Amino acid sequence: MKINRTVERAVEILELIASTDRELTLSDIAKELEMPKTSTFDILETLVHSNMLYTKENGIKTYKIGVKAYSIGSNYSRTSLLLNASEPIIKELAQATGLTILIAKETSGEIVFTLKQEPEKKTIATPSIGDRLHIHTTSIGKSILAFSHKQERLFEQIDFCAQTNMSITSKSDLVKEVEKIKAQGYSISNRENETYTFSIGAPIFDHRGYVTAAIGTLGLYEESYDPTRDIELVKVAAMRISKLQGYKG
Fold first, then answer.
1. Could you read off the pLDDT of 182-204 as tens digits, one per residue?
2. How far, in Å, CA of 108 to CA of 22, rounded?
3. Which residues contact 134 (CB under 8 A, 6 or more apart)?
4. Among 20, 47, 107, 224, which has the minimal tally of Cβ within 10 Å of its Cβ?
5. Cα(195)–Cα(174) distance, rounded to whole angstroms?
6. DSSP H stretches of helix in the chain
7. What pTM value is reported for the model?
8. Considering only CA atoms, which of 215, 219, 198 is closest in space to residue 100?
């Protein structure tokens, strides 16, 4: 069997970038993989063009895993043991709440959706698997941020843009929100990401006690809505999934 060296190199680059939280430059990647800079550059730009990677430029150009690569990985993840085991839980939660249920992970300071369950009667458009949203305007994102072991680094990546007039736009306010979330074990996004939505989120932990994802509801904001019951349902679902990952906390 003939192996295409360029494709093999592209896979090596993707694996290298996915394996680290560091922001790698062209020089870093070429040095690590012992590749000429010219061919490394050509492969990187092709991967960026196809959305397998994306670039960040803060004085120097670095490369991060792109939405298409994550979406491909998410499609695999949906067949994994963990997410297969999670599916009946989120189906139960969608039925019990009548709301869309989402699971998302953090990547490069944003959340990316990996699993989704719609209720029988869908009322609003909701994110698709692979979609990215801000970490500070979503209940799922804030749940991950509150319990993350790399919280300081995540704070540095937030641009505090306002999605609505309800969005948190300062670090001091978000720090207070995070402290509240840690104390109560769940988060709420009340029209912070979209003017018409309300969501509840709770963290999912692995066997080490690290937050690996979060689960959340998404529905229309209604002034008369009392979230008390749904908050408890979301927290229970998050804990059930966490235990599937070996969490003992």
1. 999 999 999 999 999 999 999 99
2. 10
3. 110, 111, 141, 158, 161, 163, 193
4. 224
5. 19
6. 5-18, 26-33, 37-49, 67-77, 81-97, 139-147, 151-157, 171-184, 228-244
7. 0.70
8. 219
